[in-house]
């Protein structure tokens, strides 16, 4: 149960790595297959099979009766990449290189490198990239972008920068495309300072790509949580005549809110609203994504009043809330025990005609079950069924055991019958419906504990409490002495 990744982050992480739109289709889609389908299936079976050693694999493909072409290699690699171990794929490709020799084109070689990059196999990538340079082959810019992205994700930043510095060995130019790719890869994991070094050393080669590079740098500082450097990047954009867009401001807003969440929660709302005011001065209206960034941080600090106030501010400013907005507000209300108000917020969402995704109901029902408000969860489930969005199985699997373990076997049985009548496949066992098997967990009253006022009193009053307690003890002792004195 989770929130989807905000769309403003997806914008950066798409194909900014190359700066150009590439048609990401398999190579074999443009090459007519030479192998018959039956022979191709048999070859895929041999490569995918985990039986036998790598030498056995090479022996099996060597004895193949039909000659293997470059087109067949790409088909086998793509067909087997999810089933076969990467070492078997690497051995098959190595054998293919020996078998075809110079007939194996650079396109197929690059395709194999991208495949192992996708599989995050550093050893295979390292072997093929080294051989690519030794054989004097050309590395495509798309391949370079995929390789550096994977290397940075694996924590091998130095290796990624090393390939960029030695692109000449791979007959790949250090131009705006490759510079944008390495900067994007570095910034995706917060290495903004090293990315700035690349930009500084190649300032003359990034003409026309400044906006894309600034966005990457801003995102890199945001990932690092450095508000000061993120603000500096925005100022540099303005001084260079490049106006920040909605993505830039949302990225900075996220960085600012995350910082305040850790060090200054009371500054969350005022500082975020100041950024939104700045956005409006540039003709950029904050969207629901902008407000959701703030609401997410407010929810994590359980700031209910501010969350409700922001929802009202959105309506006054003419910004339409989406289902994620209502989710964030309802969630913080449920977590703080304001169940009636949370229910009201959900109904407002449905009245406005918003149809949320299944994740909305999954998460909120999970929250209500977690705080032991199963009846509210059942009401929310009824609302989910009215929308006819489907996907009810996981909810039944949560609610049925919850009711039964709470002692309400009647409701559990009713939900079970309802699910089976609808043909919903349940993963919970039918044993939960049996009171003789299911252990009922009823809330127990806490034992009354004697509270020591001295431990909870302020420092100034502790001495007074001790003095009064001492006086009372003395009075009790005197009374005992009088009562026990001989008559």
Automatic annotation (TrEMBL):
Lineage start: Eukaryota, Viridiplantae, Streptophyta, Embryophyta, Tracheophyta
Protein name according to UniProt: Pentatricopeptide repeat-containing protein
Homology family: Belongs to the PPR family. P subfamily.
Pfam families: PPR, PPR_2
Organism: Ilex paraguariensis (yerba mate)
Protein keywords: Repeat
PPR repeat copies, ranges: 210-244, 287-321
Superkingdom as given in the UniProt entry: Eukaryota
Stretch list, region Disordered: 464-487
Key word Disulfide bond present: no
Stretches of the chain forming a coiled coil according to its record: none
């Amino acid at each position: 149960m989770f929130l989807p990744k905000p769309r403003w982050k997806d914008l950066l992480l798409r194909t900014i790595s190359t700066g150009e739109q590439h048609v990401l289709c398999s190579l074999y889609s443009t090459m007519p297959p030479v192998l018959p389908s039956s022979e191709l299936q048999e070859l895929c079976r041999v490569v995918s099979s985990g039986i036998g050693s790598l030498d056995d694999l090479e022996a099996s493909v060597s004895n193949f009766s039909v000659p293997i072409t470059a087109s067949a290699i790409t088909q086998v690699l793509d067909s087997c990449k999810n089933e076969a171990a990467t070492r078997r794929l690497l051995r098959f490709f190595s054998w293919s290189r020996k078998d075809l020799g110079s007939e194996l084109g650079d396109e197929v070689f690059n395709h194999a490198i991208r495949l192992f990059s996708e599989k995050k196999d550093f050893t295979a990538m390292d072997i093929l990239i080294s051989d690519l340079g030794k054989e004097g082959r050309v590395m495509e810019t798309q391949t370079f972008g995929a390789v550096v992205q994977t290397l940075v994700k694996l924590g091998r930043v130095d290796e990624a920068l090393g390939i960029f510095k030695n692109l000449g060995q791979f007959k790949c130019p250090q131009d705006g495309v490759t510079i944008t790719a390495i900067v994007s890869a570095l910034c995706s994991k917060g290495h903004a300072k090293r990315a700035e070094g690349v930009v500084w050393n190649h300032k003359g080669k990034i003409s026309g790509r400044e906006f894309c590079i600034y966005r990457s740098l801003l995102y890199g500082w945001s990932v690092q949580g450095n508000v000061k450097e993120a603000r500096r990047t925005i100022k540099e954009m303005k001084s260079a005549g490049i106006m920040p867009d909605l993505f830039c401001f949302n990225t900075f807003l996220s960085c600012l809110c995350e910082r305040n969440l850790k060090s200054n929660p009371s500054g969350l709302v005022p500082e975020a609203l100041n950024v939104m005011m700045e956005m409006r001065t540039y003709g950029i209206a904050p969207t629901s994504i902008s407000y959701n960034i703030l609401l997410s941080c407010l929810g994590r600090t359980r700031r209910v009043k501010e969350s409700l106030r922001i929802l009202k501010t959105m309506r006054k400013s003419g910004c339409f809330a989406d289902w994620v907005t209502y989710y964030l507000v309802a969630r913080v209300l449920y977590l703080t025990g304001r169940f009636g108000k949370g229910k009201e917020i959900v109904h407002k969402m449905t009245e406005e005609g918003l149809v949320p995704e299944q994740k909305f109901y999954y998460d909120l029902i999970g929250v209500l079950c977690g705080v032991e408000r199963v009846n509210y969860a059942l009401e929310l489930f009824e609302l989910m069924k009215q929308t006819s969005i489907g996907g009810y199985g996981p909810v039944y699997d949560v609610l049925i055991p919850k009711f039964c373990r709470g002692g309400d076997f009647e409701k559990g049985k009713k939900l079970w019958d309802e699910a089976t009548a609808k043909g919903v496949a349940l993963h919970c066992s039918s044993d939960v419906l049996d009171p003789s098997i299911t252990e009922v967990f009823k809330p127990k009253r806490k034992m009354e504990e004697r509270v020591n006022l001295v431990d909870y009193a302020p420092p100034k009053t502790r001495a007074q409490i001790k003095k009064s307690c001492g006086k009372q003890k003395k009075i009790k002792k005197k009374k005992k002495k009088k009562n026990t004195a001989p008559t």
